[in-house]
Amino acid sequence: MSGEIYIGDICVRHFVSSRFKLDGGSMFGVIPKTLWEKKTKPDEQNRITLAVNTLLVQTSGINVIVEPGMGLNYSEKQFNIYDLERFQLKDRLIEQGISPSEIDIVVFTHLHLDHAGGATEVSPDGGVVPVFPNAVHVVQEFELQEAKRPHPIESASYRTSDFAALEACGLLRVVDGDEEVAPGVFVERTGGHTRGHQIVTIVSGGEKALYPGDITPTSAHLPLNWLMGWDLYPEEIYWKKELVLKKAAEEGILVFWTHDPNIAASKVSLENDSSFSIVSGSTLPVI
Ligand SMILES: [Zn+2]
Question: How many domains does the chain have?
Fold first, then answer.
C-alpha cells in the first residue's frame, strides 16, 4: 500500500521503506529533553521511533525513487541498536506490483546509511549487489567524496558497501550542483546536514512538492534552531532551512517529512518572521 497524490501530471506515491529508532538526544542536538519529549516520547533506552518516507515518482514513463532507506544489510547487534524492523524498500515495491528492475532513477539526498542502505543488498553468495540493476543512482559529487573519505566524527554514518557496488557497476550518476534529473524532478545541493546534501523538488502544472531530506527530518524539527546532533554544519543548515521553509510557505509547497513516523507530508505556514507551523488539514499520514 502507498499514499498516492498528483503534483500536476506527476504521480507521487509515498510509503515507509524503513522503521527504526535512534537516540532522541542525537535527533534534537542542543534542545533540552524536557522540550523534545513533549513532541516524541522516548523508549526506556531514550530512543525515538523514526521512519524513512520514500517516494516513488512517476513522470513521463520514468520511475524515480527518492531515498531508498536503510535496507537490511546489518549485523544482529545493529538490528538491536536501531530496533530496525525487518522490511525494506524492495519488499514494499514488490507488494505494490513494482519490480526493482522497473526503477530507472534513484536519488539519494545523501549517503548516510539510513538513506542509502536500501539501494544494495547481500546476494546469496555473500557479495553486495545493487537492488535496482537498471537504475542510475544520483548523488552529489561533494557527498560521494565525503562518503569515501569521511571526517572521523561521521565515519560511522557512512559505509563503503552502500555505494561501492553501485560505482563498480557504473550505476552512480554524480552531479555537481542543481539539475533536473527527470522531467519535473529537480535536485538542489544544500549542504548543511552533510557537505554534499541535496534536496528534491517535484514541479508540474503549477504545483510543487519538496523532499528536504535531513534539512527538516521530521515535523517536530520545524523550529529553525531544532537541529540534529548529526548536522555537520549547523550554521549552514539553519539558514538553508529558513530559506527552504519560507519558500515552501510562500508557494504552498507540499513538504515531505523524511523521518517522521506519523506525518508523511504537509504544507507549512509562516506565523511571524521565522516561526513555522503545519497547515491544518494539509497533512498526509504515513503509510
Ligand atoms: Zn537521516
Answer: 1
How far is ligand 1, taken at its centre, from the CA of residue 115, in Å? 6
Grid coordinates of 263: 506525518
Q: In what order do the strands lie in the sheet with 105-107?
A: 3-7, 10-23, 47-59, 62-66, 105-107, 136-140, 172-175
Please provide the size of the chain in residues: 287
pTM: 0.97
Cα of 205 vs centre of ligand 1, distance in Å, is: 30
Q: Do 282 and 238 form a contact (C-beta atoms < 8 A)?
A: no
Residue indicated by cell numbers 506525518: 263
What is the four-CA torsion angle of 22, 88, 169, 110, rounded to 10 degrees?
A: -30
Helix, strand, coil percent content, the chain, rounded in steps of 5: 30, 30, 40
Domain range for 149 is 3-285
Q: What is the per-residue pLDDT for 97? A: 97
Q: What is the CATH number of the domain that holds 126?
A: 3.60.15.10
Is 90 exceeded by the pLDDT of residue 272? no
Q: What is the DSSP letter of 153?
A: G
Gap from CA of 50 to ligand 1 centroid (Å): 9
- Ligand 1 centroid from CA 18, angstroms: 11
Q: How many angstroms separate the alpha carbon of residue 150 from the centre of ligand 1?
A: 16
- 275 alpha carbon to ligand 1 midpoint, in Å? 23
Q: Residue 23: what pLDDT?
A: 98
Distance 69 CA to ligand 1 centre (A): 9
